[in-house]
Amino acid sequence: MFLAAAAVLAIITQDATSLRAAPSQTAPANAVLWQGEVVEVRGGRLGYLQVYNYQRERAGYVLESQARQYPMDGLRPAGVLETVRFLRDLPGMEALGIGHAALFLKVAPPAEIDAEVFDALGTMADRLARRASARSGKPGDSLAGHLEVARSYGVRIESVEADGRAVLCYDGEAFRQVLSLARGPALTLSASGAGPAGSGRNPEFQARAALGLTRLECQTGTETQRRAALAEAAAILDGVPLDSLPPLIRYRLQLRRASVLAGLAFGFGRAGEAERAREASARAVEDLARVPRGEMAESDADLVAEAFVRAGATRPASDTTASVSSKLAWRLIPRAVGETCLAVTRMAKGGEEELVHCTYAVVWPGSVHISPGGQVITAALQPVAEWRELLVARLQDGEWRAEVVSPGTELGLGYLEWAGFSPDGRDLLVAREVKAGGRVRRSFELLDVETLAVKRKADRPQDLTPFQKWQAPAWRQATLALR
Fold first, then answer.
1. DSSP 3-state assignment of 222?
2. 408 within 8 A of 416, measured Cβ to Cβ
3. Would strands 340-346 and 353-359 be described as parallel, antiparallel, or unpaired?
C-alpha cells in the first residue's frame, strides 16, 4: 500500500473534490479526487490546504472541509483504528475506510497490528466489489473512483465472467492474512473471554474471511482448476470453529459450505469418484439441515434459496438405492472419454440390450426410475454443477424415444427432479426449482409422458391432487424441494 512519508498527511473525505490550481472556487481544477485518496499537506491559505497527490503527481489546493488531516508526529494509531471500525460497516464509505486502514498499517507498531484491521480491510474491499458488480452496466463516476482509490492502495479487484455477466471480485489478500494469523500463537484474551482481542483467533474474523475467500461466482478457470478451488474452499470453511460463532454467521457459513460441497460433489462425479461424490453431497444436505429457516435474516432469503438449489442439483449423488423392475433391467455404460450411455434390457424380449441415450453430462445412478409398467424410464443428467436436467425415455412402437427436459430455457441455476409416476405410467410428477429474473422459483408439476407438456402445476405439492396421491415415498424422504 502506498502512502507518502510526510509531516502531515490528509485523506480526502468527500467525492468529486476539486484539486484546484489556486485557493479559489473559480480557479481551474487540476484533477478530481475521491474519498479515501491521500495527499501530502504542504501549507494552507484562505480555508484551503496546499497539497500534493503522489499517485497523480499533481499539486494544488483542496478545501479544508473536504479532507481530514493527520500530523505524523505523535499520531495515535488507536485513534485511526477507531475510525476504521466506524467505517467498516458503512456501505458507500469503503474507499475512505480502506484509506484509513492503510494509514493505520503505516503508523502502527508491528505489535499492534493484528487480524482486526485485516478483517476490516477485507470486508470493505469485498463489499466494494459486490456494490460495483450489482450496478447494471458501467459503474458511475463515484463508484469507479472508489475502485481506483482501492487499487491505488494495492487492493486487487478484478473482473471475471460469471453466468454471462461481468462480476468484480476482491482477491482476498487481507482475508488470507486473517487466516494466517489464526494459525499463529494465541494472544491475550479479551475481557469478555469470548476470544483473543483483535487476534486472528477471533472466530467471527475467521468466518468473514472464509466467506470472502469462497465466493462461488469468483471461481474461474478450467474444470480441473475449479475443482481444486472448490477443494480449497471446503478446507477453508472446515477450518472455522462453528461452535464459537453467533448463530446468524454460523448459518451463513453452513449455507456457503453446502454450496461448495455440492459443487465438489459434481466434480467428483465427473471424475468417476462416486463414493467421494456421495459423501460430499450428503455433507451438503447435512449442513442445510442445520440451518433453521425461521432464524435467518430477511436479507438472507436469496442466499438460502440459492444454497438449497445448488445442493438440490447434486443431491442425487447421495442416492444409493437403484431402481429395479421385473420388466426392465438397466445399466450405465462408459464409452468415449466423458460419455455415458443408458442401456436397458426388456425381459420380454429375451435379454437383448438396447441403448436408450448417450450423454456427456454426469448421470447419477441412484436417480434412475422405472414406471410401474416398464414403459418409461427417467434419470438425472447434470451437465454442470448448478444445473440438473431430467432424461425421460418412453417405449413407443417397440422403440425407445428419449428426450431431455430442462429446468428452464437458459443454462443457469436450477434443477428438474422426478417425484413419481401415475399408476398407469402416462403421467410424470416433477419438482422444478430454477433461478429466473434474479429470483428462485419453485413449482410442482404433472407432465404428460407422451408430450412432456405441463398438464397441471402448483407452488405447493399439497395444492396438486396428483402429488398427494402418487408422489414416491423415496422422493419425499430425500428431496430438498420440500424444505
1. coil
2. no
3. antiparallel
Secondary structure class of 450 (helix, strand, coil): coil
- CA 251/CA 241 separation, integer angstroms: 12
Rounded to a whole number, what is the largest CA-CA distance in the chain?
101
Percentage helix, strand, coil for the chain under 3-state DSSP, each rounded to 5: 40, 30, 30
What pLDDT, in 10s, does the model give residues 228-248? 999 999 999 999 999 989 999
pTM score, whole prediction = 0.88
Percent with pLDDT over 70 in the chain: 93
| Alpha helices (runs of H) in 69-169, residue ranges in sequence order | 77-88, 94-107, 115-134, 141-152
Q: What is the CATH number of domain 8-71?
A: 2.30.30.40
Residue type, 362: V
- The ranges assigned to domains in the chain are 8-71, 221-318, 322-478
Residue 220: C-alpha distances to residues 169, 216, 224 (Å): 11, 9, 10
For CA atoms 125, 126, 130, 131, give the dihedral sign: negative
Read off the C-alpha cell for 114. 493484528
Report the run of H or E that residue 468 belongs to, with start and end. Answer: helix 465-470
Separation between Cα atoms, residue 59 and residue 82, nearest integer Å: 30
